[in-house]
């Protein structure tokens, strides 16, 4: 399906860290791209600020969005890598909210996460869609990320390029993964192919009428 791509410009946020009565600006940085072996969280000179949960660990999401047997990838400017949508889970959101937010901010699409939600919501408890996979990966000698890896399908919206962060955004088939430049990492290719395989059904592709003629 032909897709027109618009552009997204980022929203800059500056949360504060609280330790007792001490309120300090968090160290500005560009978030690591999540659970795919990307050991990078460089300090960024812009006013963008990432809230870190702890000096030793953060939680991240990666979202593999599949439509018509293709998966959505971005070419990250700073890291010069093809990656899925994703980023840090912020302090005021749960993993599900983070995945939906990151997908919207980085692609312009509202997506539906694929996964099981147990029927256990009750007062004081809200059941969440389970990620398809989890991992833990080292960012520095003293900092690690726990990554939550989701499959998703697009519901609505127009595909958009976040020009401040990405060179490109595109739908990629399983067969095209080996021909992208720069080369796609083995982990990303495995997740892409697994997501395409598991999201292959027509019901997944046409739910909510997204992309239908």
What does this protein look like?
- This protein is an alpha+beta fold.
- It has one domain: Nucleoside Triphosphate Pyrophosphohydrolase (Alpha-Beta Complex), CATH 3.90.79.10.
- It is built from three helices and twelve strands; from the N terminus they run E-E-E-E-E-E-E-H-E-E-E-E-E-H-H.
- The strands form three sheets. Strands 4, 5, 6, 7, 8, 9, 10 and 12 form an eight-stranded mixed sheet that branches. A two-stranded parallel sheet has the order 1-11.
- The longest helix has 13 residues, at 95-107.
- It is globular.
- The N and C termini lie close together (10 Å).
* Proportion of beta-strand residues: 35-45%
Q: What is the count of helical runs?
A: 3
Reported by name, the CATH topology is Nucleoside Triphosphate Pyrophosphohydrolase
Radius of gyration: 17 Å
Oligomeric organization of the protein chains = single chain
Detail the poorly predicted runs: 6-49
Overall helicity: 10-25%
Largest β sheet strand count, sense and barrel closure: 8 strands, mixed
Mean pLDDT: 79
> Whole-Å distance between the termini?
10 Å
């Amino acid at each position: 399906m032909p897709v027109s791509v618009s552009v997204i410009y980022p929203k800059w946020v500056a949360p504060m860290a609280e330790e007792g009565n001490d309120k300090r600006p968090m160290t500005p940085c560009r978030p690591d791209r999540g659970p795919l072996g990307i050991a990078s969280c460089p300090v960024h000179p812009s006013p963008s600020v990432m809230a870190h949960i702890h000096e030793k660990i953060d939680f991240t999401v990666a979202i593999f969005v599949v439509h018509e047997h293709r998966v959505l990838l971005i070419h990250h400017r700073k890291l010069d890598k093809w990656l899925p949508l994703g980023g840090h889970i912020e302090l005021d959101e749960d993993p599900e909210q983070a995945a939906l937010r990151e997908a919207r901010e980085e692609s312009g699409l509202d997506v539906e996460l694929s996964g099981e939600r147990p029927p256990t919501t009750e007062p004081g408890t809200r059941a969440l869609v389970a990620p398809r996979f989890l991992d833990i990966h080292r960012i520095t000698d003293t900092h690690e990320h726990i990554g939550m890896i989701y499959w998703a399908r697009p519901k609505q919206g127009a595909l958009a390029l976040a020009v401040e962060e990405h060179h490109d955004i595109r739908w990629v088939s399983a067969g095209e993964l080996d021909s992208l430049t720069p080369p796609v990492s083995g982990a990303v290719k495995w997740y892409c192919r697994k997501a395409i395989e598991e999201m292959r059904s027509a019901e997944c592709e046409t739910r909510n009428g997204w992309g239908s003629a």
